[in-house]
Structure prediction request, 595 residues.
Amino acid sequence: MTSIHVLPEARVPDPAGPSEAPVASGHRTHEVTNQSPPLVGHDVFGADAALVETLARVVGDPGNPGNARDPGDTAAGMHEADRARLGELAELGRLAGSQQAQTWADQANRFTPQLHTHDRFGHRVDEIELHPAWHELMGVAVRHGLHAAPWREEGRHPHLLRAAGFYVWSQAEQGHGCPISMTYAVVPALRLQPELADRWEPLLAARSYSPGSQPPHTKPGVLAGMGMTEKQGGSDVRANTTTATPDGSDGFRLTGHKWFTSAPMNDLFLVLAQAPGGLTCFLLPRVLPDGTLNSWRIQRLKDKLGNRSNPSGEVEMDQAWAQRVGPEGRGVATIIEMVAATRLDTVLGSAALVRRALTEASWHAAHRRAFGTVLADTPLMRSVLADLAVEAEAALALGLRLASAADAAARGDEQARALRRIALPLSKYWVTKRAPTLVAEAMECLGGNGYVEESVLPRLLREAPVNSIWEGSGSVNALDLLRALGKEPAALDAWLAEVGLARGADRHLDNAVQAVLALLADMGDPSTAQASARRLAEQMALVTQAALLVQHAPHCVADAFCAGRLGPGATLTLGTLPRGLDLAGIVARATPTLG
Ligand SMILES: Cc1cc2nc3c(=O)[nH]c(=O)nc-3n(C[C@H](O)[C@H](O)[C@H](O)COP(=O)(O)OP(=O)(O)OC[C@H]3O[C@@H](n4cnc5c(N)ncnc54)[C@H](O)[C@@H]3O)c2cc1C
Prediction:
């Protein structure tokens, strides 16, 4: 049966459209109440107590510069370059929480990149059209030195401060973090070929965003990408079939394909190919010095679950010109230098996603009432939010510790280098794997609103899984942990020294360290213990996080993490923290305020 609804005359829409946007008073059915106000204008850096406290402890407090603990700092307490970066961070934090940044993020993900393979006359152009909002996001990131700047700029803590900036700005939008991260990461690999590093590092580190198809050497700043994955193998890059033939001068000609190449419109790429001496790393410019296009043909863009602002392409090369980076036959060892740095960013990016999701969830719960009570004050919602908050803080603690280890390693600290070797794969494994679960739980805190695009949570949830896939998926990182244990005894020593700093502070943590040692002993030879690799990575990550929180976070956070994740009956199900903890204190620390 059909029924016909006739609008009363006064409600018939004007075909010319409404003269002004309809307002609630024009509707008689209801008033809008009990919706949370928009979270706009929140200071993403200043409101993040865990971040601010960590930087004050490690770098120093700009308001009280004498308190920096790093023995290398100047008498004034803080290196001028670090002070300047802290100032930029404060600015970035305010921008990340602004309406402007939210609009850019929304537009860059709704108006997705378009590939133009040919011009109207049939010439190959391989151009990607990107929304202006993408360029705005990129411009901010480059101006704030979130790309390769820390490799060239002064300061005691350039990598830590850059990590803080990457984490803060990633809370505005994640997709553009991919080319920013690859540009950051290309430098250590390039340094294995010093004449190429000398040539390109200044442009990679320049704080000048310069998109477009010009010869890279004519640009004020360039961006980099990487081409490893092929159709027949991504984790197993030794299966690459792209060939590299010496061209008789200082170059090679590459022929083959790359199944995933993100930001294929960037200027320079590290590409793996089979040279006569074996799998080798190459530097390939998209535009050749004479201004013609290299043979870098973008065949298609991937239609992805998330990460939609960032183009990821399939690329073919037919005699593309490239230069060798690192020794011939040592391609994996060379490009792994790049992958190590992008892995750090997957940890920071996941921490940022979780933090943004928590911010939205705690804000909503602080303003929404159900059954006569503010949601955040109900015992169970408080438990969920507190659980999210302690994991968010633990994820950040791990990411920042890795970044400060990168600073120390760059200064020649061997123990920091060994710690990074072991802590990176376990952190990449665990933090990126937890992110989708944590973001989904935060989404549920917003109820139905959370499932709706305008809430931003759907974008965060779509984004979350990619960090545990690219740059080495979960199992590949768990196996890399075993490799570190098997090949570098100093790495386990460094880890034990790191978690040993918290010895005696929490009985659950002490027991968990013993449990890791027992698991290691039980596994026997780490190289043959693959089936236990994930369990080991998980336990070691939780212990590392707990050790950091016990030393540096407020008691309420550390106690909840140790009891909830390591204590008897510990579970990873959110909202199940044991009784007797200061959950209200944790939630208050995590809830944003305006002004
Ligand atoms: C959005 C996006 C962007 C990307 N951008 C780039 C890019 O710019 N450049 C680039 O080179 N690549 C890029 N990649 C590719 C990405 O790095 C690979 O997809 C990833 O490394 C996994 O490789 P694969 O897809 O071939 O899967 P496979 O290697 O086939 O792995 C499939 C599964 O098997 C598991 N596995 C593999 N080996 C083992 C083992 N020994 N034991 C147990 N399990 C194992 C993996 O963990 C995974 O779960 C991108 C991917 C995505 C999704």
